[in-house]
Amino acid sequence: MTTPExxxxxxxxxxxxTFDCPDPAELARFxxxxxxxxxxxxxxxxVLLGGGPDGAAGLGFNRLADYRRPTWPDPSQExxxxxxxxxxxxxxxEARLLxxxxxxxxxxxxxxxxxxxxxxxxxxxxxxxxx
Length: 131
Hints:
This protein is an alpha/beta fold. The chain is 18% helix and 27% strand. A hairpin with a 7-residue loop joins strand 3 and strand 4. 20% of the residues are buried.
């Protein structure tokens, strides 16, 4: 009889984080331009950026018919998850991301250390010189 201790653990690798959204193409365009990631796979309902033969992790965007935007910082519709982007200059990075379609909420917990922005689907994400 085989016990759990006798079986070899499977090998896992990080492949992607996928965000639910109403328009995968729009959100993929935003993050693709912001991060310089190419489209690796695309359908009407799902887009994967990055990935590729070198095994780099990617970002996925999945159409969800009843998607509800997070209401951060109001907890009535939680953010579920967010991505952190490391940058050299907060002001320059913020300006670029706003030009790509991000929005900036009024509430900024520590604007000298990081900025909270919202992507076009409303997901909060942080831009920081710390990361």
